[in-house]
User: Fold these one by one.
Assistant:
Number 1:
Amino acid sequence: MAEKKRSRQPNGASSIYLGKDGKWHGRVTVGVKDDGTPDRRHIERKTKTEVTKAVRAMERARDEKKLRKPGQSWTVKAWLEHWVENIAKPYVSENTYDGYEVDVRVHLVPGLAAHKLDKLEPEHLERFYRKMQESGSAAGTAHHAHRTIRVALGEAMRRGHVATNVAEIAKAPRLEEEDIEPFTIEEVQSLLVEAAKLRNSARWVVALALGLRQGEALGLHWEDVDLDAGYVRIRKNRLRPKYAHGCGDNPCGRKAGYCPQKQQTRREHKSTKSRAGRRTIGLPDPLIKLLRQHQEIQEKERIEAGTDWETKGYVFASPTGGPLSPNTDFHIWKKLLKNAGVRDGRLHDARHTAATVLLILGVPDVVVDAIMGWEPGGAARMRARYMHVTGTVLKRTAQQVGEALWGADGRHLP
């Protein structure tokens, strides 16, 4: 029996018909184009059954908001480069952008560039992460690349360029959490003795006693310190410097950071972004005394520098008042550990140490969270991460258990 000729469907309804070319065709209205005209998608199959199945699948995708919108067919390379420069860069912090940019340029584009964005599959990503690690990248590096492409594909999905964020499905590289051992009280005391010999010695006391992050300590301004009231407000973060060449038509042949006429292209500090990060911390009396001495020494440096002094208000400044370099600060820390005869450790381990001291002292959790600047939602996880159970705590707990079971004098022993 011959098929009926194509009949006109109501506006917006899908249509299925046999074409003059002998193939079956389907037309599905999925929305409106940028110019206001209906967006009708065309499907072509050999049989009516096949085209009907394809039309119904497209209708379901349309109704579930999972249909890619018309227009440019992005490759992974084109989308990532567009996303990082035009979408991410204007809205994220400088440090976050730097991480995204390195992941895109160094890892993601070389490894995934030719894939069509809407054809990318979870298995492509999982094989890519494995190849990264087989080529020598650390699991943490591969994990960071995973987080970056997950954010980029999430934006592509919100804009209708892909139906699914396959990075949400792909298994991220497994990370083994490092077992970090904080410095002991004896090691801290050795570090403080050696730090007293250095310029800006209070900088290291602040790290070990208050647990400030590097950016928070180097971004500290005198306007945020009230020594009479005995507190400090954390409101700014020092950013890593970034430079451009200033040599113009006579290139120096060096990297931008070593150019004799280099120009700073990044602001020195930014405001602390999270509410928990913006916090007020009480100062121990010995630290107040030390900061007063530090203030007096800095005033003498200001007088000696004369017109070369930069009036920027940094608590920990260069000999002419400018901001300290995070890279130089790190190397001073490493030298401090060596000179104090203390085992090697990360600068961030000073923060672990401060948190552990708070645990030993039995400071309430809510106060610890406020001092450390932890967000309420993740505070419990951060305490578990930072506040290591030390021998002191274990011994005190064992003693309390013993007293509860056998009495303080052990008279209930069998």
Note: The mean pLDDT is 83.
Number 2:
Amino acid sequence: MASQCFSSSSSVFPTPSSSSHTKVEEKWIGSFPLKRRPVHLRLYSSARAALNADPKPVEIPRKWYNLIADLPVKPPPPLNPRTLQPVKPEDLSPLFPDELIKQETTGERFIDIPDEVVDVYKLWRPTPLIRAKRLEKLLDTPARIYYKYEGVSPAGSHKPNSAVPQVWYNAKAGVKNVVTETGAGQWGSSLAFACSLFGLGCEVWQVRASYNQKPYRRLMMQTWGAKVHPSPSSITEAGKKILEMDPTSPGSLGIAISEAVEVAAMNADTKYCLGSVLNHVLLHQTVIGEECLKQMEAIGEMPDVIIGCTGGGSNFAGLSFPFIREMLSGKINPVIRAVEPAACPSLTKGVYAYDFGDTAGLTPLMKMHTLGHDFVPDPIHAGGLRYHGMAPLLSHVYELGFMEAIAIPQTECFQGAIQFARTEGLIPAPEPTHAIAATIREALKCKETGEAKVILTAMCGHGHFDLPAYEKYLQGDMVDLSFSKEKIEASLANIPQVVA
């Protein structure tokens, strides 16, 4: 698949300038400020480089990038909930094979991608970087909008970037079956796809609200050989307890994680796979950003603003972490903006604290932005963003001030999705509609100011199996769901009290 960017404009690469100034707070560690909320200034000259009419396609990355190696302050470790001591590799061995545990805890800057994984990546990678010229025209903006399109994978999203290596490492370790949770179904279908390639059994607990809303995602998983259960289910003790308290529970990713982890812990031939949140998942997703850097270099552009949706954080981290590396080295200075649903705003409304990654409290304690592991979001259509917490590493990056976050209600997101679909032709999944809505906001701001910013956004998947959500919007039946202050306060009250 061609990887060149479809573009008609270019600029010189950004270079550090001794005359550029950034307002920051006064608390610094080394050469980096903590809680930095900078006023980002354009760092490159107004001169334009000639566009190579036929830029060479980029190659598939051969290494994953580990941002931890370059951070001025290392992230807090996960804790064993019984001892409150840092988790040891043996604590994770019931859930993950050794190689993934090593990747979860490594401080190495780059990790080699196995040849067998690259061979599967070749089915869809490198993915295209596309300039949204028709959307720019509709918005009448001087901004140049680019999107990295991950919907060309067999599962239709970015999720196979991690599903394939996770399953390969499990198969190499002799594991027979893997279990997981899924919200919208993109992760579940990606894991089912990977298992079909490497001959592993696959069992998926899908959040009940999405299980009912998205039957074709379930059918994709079943087509690739997976067993799929609505969560909460009566199969596990964790699911039974939830159903006893609320027989009509719409479920949550936290509940589904509890069910999958319970099954993995009780069966010696079964391991658990997670589609977001953990370090090794974010690591695998950096193939997105590594490709994108080279694609933008090939056309003489670098982003002023990078925008992505966030639920657990894998898609956003995958795109942004390689750019943050370049930012930390002083080569670029983009605004990096996470966008989450107003109904599940873990970054913008949650607290930064140690909490469980699942509802039943079966996982290690992770320091992250959280709404509380008991929080059950309203059943918005972006099922993949309905998670109570944010990836610990992404939360840490947010705390260091290297990114910012906003929350947008779903009706504005779908309004932006319709504009995108009717200009660019692609129907986005409900999750990236949040990034699209924020991109449109930024582009319209450029229209007001006259700034010709370069905006890069993550179009992490297509919405071909999410059309019931579009039907709701087009019929005028979609409403903005939020949360009550009391609901969050009650959930936050149950967060473990850990002095860190």
Note: Residues 433-449 form the longest helix (17 residues).
Number 3:
Amino acid sequence: MSQYNIEEEIEEIAGGEFERIPVPQSKLKSWKSFLGMYAGEHAAGTEFMIGPLFLTAGVSAFDLIIGLLLGNLLAVLSWRFLTAEIAIKNKLTLYFQLEKICGKKLVTFYNLANGVLFCFLAGAMITVSATAVGIPFDMEMPKLTDTMPNGATWEIIVIVIGAVISLIASRGYDTVSKAANWMSPAIVLAFLACGIVALNQLGVASFSDFWNIWGEGSEPFPGQIKFTFWHVVIWSWFANAAMHVGMSDLSVFRFAKKASSGWTTAAGMYVGHYMAWIAAALLYAVYLKSPEALNFLANGEAPPVAPGPLANNAIGVFGIIAVVLAGWTTANPTIYRAGLAFQAIIPKASTFWVTILAGSIATIAGLFPAFAMQLLGFVALYGFILAPFGAIIVFEHFFHKKYGIIKNYAEVANIKFNKAVIFAWAISFGLFYFISIQFDVFLSFVTLPSWLLCGVLFLVFSKYFQNKNSK
């Protein structure tokens, strides 16, 4: 038996997730597995929050409808030609791939940051599900400006939902994928139904009526920033920056037979990040005409964004169920990714227990509504922090021969801290974060420049340090 076969057998005994070896040929999956997962994950809990938040940012019809078409196309192209392309070549998780480049000590910092940020995102989705579960209990819904839990009922519901989601995620990729395939058709149907019912409630009888829901845009709600066409394009492109240009989905596409599986992300983008965002915005547009919402606006406050009541108002019990499932289908793979990040830090721990740890952190985060209510800003921040690390993988993969640097240098040189990586990331992050703060530039606008600079600096510093060490 070869060493590879021995390691493969050990991985099977440990849970079969192949965290530290390439996924074997026998375990690769067809495009259908990814189609269900991406359709489910991206027509999910975040969509119930993001659609309404676009309205609070005062977008116009053109900015939203055309901007989302372009931004989501750029996201699909990033997954197909960067993430999936590299994933099928190496068949490694993001975390093990980075360890080979960065070294064990440096990648520990990344894994911790990545895992915690993913837990916060999953926590926001637990919050979304809780707004639906709380309806029969007459639970007070969190407001757009709320940061802390608002009562014992809220806390109990969040904890129960978090426990269930964590157990599903802890059973590995197959279970996560199957759960998405089971739930996603019902969720997609619910979004479509919500959109149709909301159009009827808004009295839309023609395309011009539909267009006029947003019209030329409006002033943003209190505490929100104004979104233009380019805000919509760039934000929708980089809403999943950590996953595509940041290479987190190497951990998913390492199971793919072909790079063309990357096209399945279009199901998530155009069903979820297009149809579902617009449908959720329509639900909120209906609510904004209610006496309760008008009262909030008259008092200079932003009306709350609570997905459960919005969906319940449109399609009743089916809407409540859909919001619960939508939160699950986003939180499940997100907790799974977070568990893999923690697994890289403590490799001797089982996949089950590190995923339970990730789920516990996500549940605690879910108790605090701020992560969900400020989702536009949080998603921009976590993509900005993590995406440049993906540039290191991309630039090394495509340019290491041309620029004469050694691939997987930390592994080859047996070093635990690759200075080229930390210098490249720190300079690009520090420079563009300063620009964002100092000149009040929307953070998503500087994500691409930061990503490109990090990749270029990595090549420059790698050439310098490798030449220096060889001498």
Note: Confidence is low (pLDDT under 50) at residues 1-15.
Number 4:
Amino acid sequence: MNTATPSPVKMLLPRATCTSQRICCVSGFQVDACRSSSLSKNLVVAAKDSIGWCGTSSVYSKQPLNRFLLPTGALVTSKSQDIPVPPLVGDEKIGVLLLNLGGPETLEDVQPFLFNLFADPDIIRLPRLFRFLQKPLAQFISVVRAPKSKEGYASIGGGSPLRQITDAQAEELRKSLWGKQVPAKVYVGMRYWHPFTEEAIEQIKRDGITKLVVLPLYPQFSISTSGSSLRLLESIFREDEYLVNMQHTVIPSWYQREGYIKAMSNLIEQELKKFDNPEKVVIFFSAHGVPLAYVEEAGDPYKAEMEECVDLIMEELEKRRITNAYSLAYQSRVGPVEWLKPYTDETIIELGKKGVKNLLAVPISFVSEHIETLEEIDVEYKELALKSGIENWGRVPALGCEPTFISDLADAVIESLPYVGAMAVSNLEARQSLVPLGSVEELLAVYDSKRRELPPPVTVWEWGWTRSAETWNGRAAMLAVLVLLVLEVTTGEGFLHQWGILPLFH
């Protein structure tokens, strides 16, 4: 695989014109679909072109943008005056399930949280031959990483604030929906810590919800985040007769929505004003990374959606006469495999070498404060920036309960319900009414449905301290760990048994 960094030249491809029509079933209704270069208010469904801008550069100047590069899935809008409003009381019980990663609330939670994380095959994908080692390997990694992780969580108060923030978002979303005449209940389901998705589903059943909108709190779709949660939901739905018969809709990504773009732009504009010379500040978008093979081999749309999202925000800022240079990089990589580039730490160093003195960090893939923003960005990357010659550092806060953001999430939920647009607030046509929809099964059929084996990230063997060599050295170390684990499991003896780790899986 060629891993060379492309030239930092942004390329925009023209939108495809409509060449065919198809029928797409959304929430039990059939709607006409086509791929179009324009978005009129009568457009019902559009499919995604997998295009965006190219380059993994450090700094870009703002260029004209194709405004609507749509995400995979159905984008739904409609004329509310043509559709009768169904009753929202009585037998109809609407629920919204917010999905998020979760985080340890105390230092004692760190190791079991890490185990849940690494036991997920969408986070660490082992070859079929070694899949029986998923949990032993997760236990080993979580025990090894826990001390370092505890230091990080201790530095931000002894635990992640993610649950408290997500609970607050759920409450504000509920209030917004009721204010828009949609009396829905909102639930929180975390993937790797309490309240687990399974716990939220049980409460949904107890409350007798008949229509469920599944809303991952990840603006951009990734196999390792929204995709992992959808697979879990699929397994839960298949095993429960109540859930099989419950109508549901999933909003897999919403990074392109007008309310989200404006909310992010508002926060960036506010933080820029805190600098002495706002026009000289480089806007530095830092997104959570994913392994490169997820994108290049498994079809993960995350990179394309992230790049388009940044362009949409910069276009909105340009309307406000903010034309700062900007950059996009990826943080939080783990392990020896190659992740999406450019890396945040390397880009910060590069910007310092180029003479950048003012940097505003934007945690673009995070809607809540947690370890990646409070410790990794605010502490580690800030320190690195100051050492690299950057004199003035700022950071845009995560969206949290920002009113424009919450209101737009409520609109997204409303638009995703059957009879799209009929239950929305007035002045529908003044809003961007675009929501990608689909059932859990339909979306998994689009995103990485075959769960293909991930290829090696590097195909050249090297020794020494080059990046390729480090990757192979790490791979050799991992192979040695796997061999030791196989011996432990097959013989029932070894240091992991002596430490009391593996007997958990007898």
Note: Residues 467-491 form the longest helix (25 residues).
